[in-house]
Amino acid sequence: MPNNQPFCLSIKGDYLLADGVIDQCENRWIGIMEKENKDYIVQFILGKQFQDPSILYKSDGFIGYLSLNNIHHKLAWIEWHKPFMPWDSSKLLIGKLDGLSSINDIECSEKENSNTRKLVSFFQPIWLPTGDIAVSEDSTGWWNVI
After folding, report:
1. Are 138 and 130 in contact (CB under 8 A)?
2. pLDDT bucket at 115, cuts 50 / 70 / 90
3. In Å, how far from its chain's centre is CA 96?
4. Containing H/E element for 29?
5. Residue (of 142, 11, 127) closest to 70 by Cα position
6. Which neighbouring-strand residues pair with 63?
7. C-alpha span between 27 and 60 (Å, rounded)
8. Fewer CB near the last or first residue (10 Å), C or N of the chain?
9. Comparing 24 with 115, which gets the higher pLDDT?
10. Which residues contact 27 (CB under 8 A, 6 or more apart)?
11. What does the alpha-carbon distance between residue 76 and residue 121 come to, in Å, rounded to a whole number?
C-alpha cells in the first residue's frame, strides 16, 4: 500500500470510533469504540485495509482520553460510570500493553476528597519523558496537575 494514498482501516460496522493514538512500536492504531451503548478499547493494524476491530479492553462504563507510553508499553485512560459525567466523578486506569493481544495489570486510581467526601474526577493523562504520568484531578475543589 503506498504511504501517500488514503485507505480505510476498518470494515463498515454498527459502531463508532474515536480518540485514537498511534502505537509506532506495534504499528497499530489504538482507539475507543462505542457499540451497542458499551465502550471498548480496540486496535487496528496500520497498513491493512477493512479490518474488524480487535478488542483489547471492555468497559462497564465510558472511556476517554487515551494516552500511550511507547517506551514502557503502557496505556492510560479515564473511565466513568452513569449517572456521572467525567468531570463529576471518574477514575484513571493504567494498563500494560501485551503485544497485540491484550491490556494486562490494570491499575486504577480513584479518589475521594477527604474533607468533603466529594467524588473526584481525573482529566487528560499525559506521559512524561521520565515514564511518570501527569494528570489533572480536582480533589481540592480546583483542577490541579498531579
Report:
1. no
2. low
3. 12
4. strand 28-35
5. 127
6. 79
7. 28
8. N
9. 24
10. 45, 46, 47
11. 15
C-alpha distances in Å from residue 83, one per residue of 10, 87, 135: 31, 12, 23
The residue assigned the cell 499525559 is 126
Cis peptide before 83 (omega within 30 of 0): yes
Residue owning grid cell 479518589: 111
Name, in order, each residue with C-beta under 8 angstroms of 113's C-beta and a sequence gap of 6 or more.
Answer: 119, 120, 139, 140, 141
The C-alpha cell of 50 is what? Answer: 477493512
Locate 127 and state its grid cell.
506521559
56-101 per-position pLDDT tens digit: 999 999 999 999 998 899 999 999 999 999 998 999 999 999 887 8
CB 73 within 8 A of CB 96: yes
